[in-house]
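G., the chain you wanted modeled:
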Amino acid sequence: MLKTKKIDNWERYFQKYNQNKFALHFSTLARENIFHTLNKLILNKKKHKNLKILDFGVSDSSNKDANPFLKFLKKRKRNIIYGCGLDEVSEVKKNYKNLNYTKIIQNNRLPYKDNYFHLSLSHAVFEHVGGDKKKIFYLSELIRVSENIFISIPNRFFPIEHHSNIPFLGYLPKKIIYKLLSFFNYDIFKSEKSLTFNSINQFKKYISYIKVNKNMKFEFGYTGLKLGFFSSHFYIFIKKQK
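Predicted structure as tokens:
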């Protein structure tokens, strides 16, 4: 595998990523399966168009894969879509007239009341949140503001690592992973502050640190490019039963 040119910011990363038609093709297939999973779990059962749905992690990224849930909800003609993220997203708002967007501060309490949303969605955000404490806080806040939560996350055991395309990278110990990313000039991902590697079993450990009510139901499974344990993504669906 050849070294890439130095990538130390998101703009350079997406310039490279958007040139990889092979990766974009399979990413599209993975997202379609993720949407199918989401439909099966909840959206086909809750067809009311005025449900309050939050997309956590809206960005102004130039990545062709950016904001997949916004695109998906727009196709389903949802009247109101809520979104939050770290960016200004002025250009995104032009394309989504019904988007009620709130810029948030990373690792701060979300500016919403408890159980304000019927459903919160988050795709490919968890791995960029940071270390263990930040992940637990992220999960706690999504659970606080939502009656239902659907999170999809890249699976570290997928044979090709999602961000660098380095084969079997996620199988290695953490220290070696970051050394290899640095060696191949992915400086943007040189520590867990910007990228972590996750599995269903690891995620379950984070759940164990959260105050969980007896009325909460948790479902875990594989989605995306489905290869069982080696699938491209896994999901968590959390439902507060009334």
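Helices lie at 10-17, 21-43, 68-75, 90-95, 132-145, 174-183, 200-208.

Shout if anything looks off.
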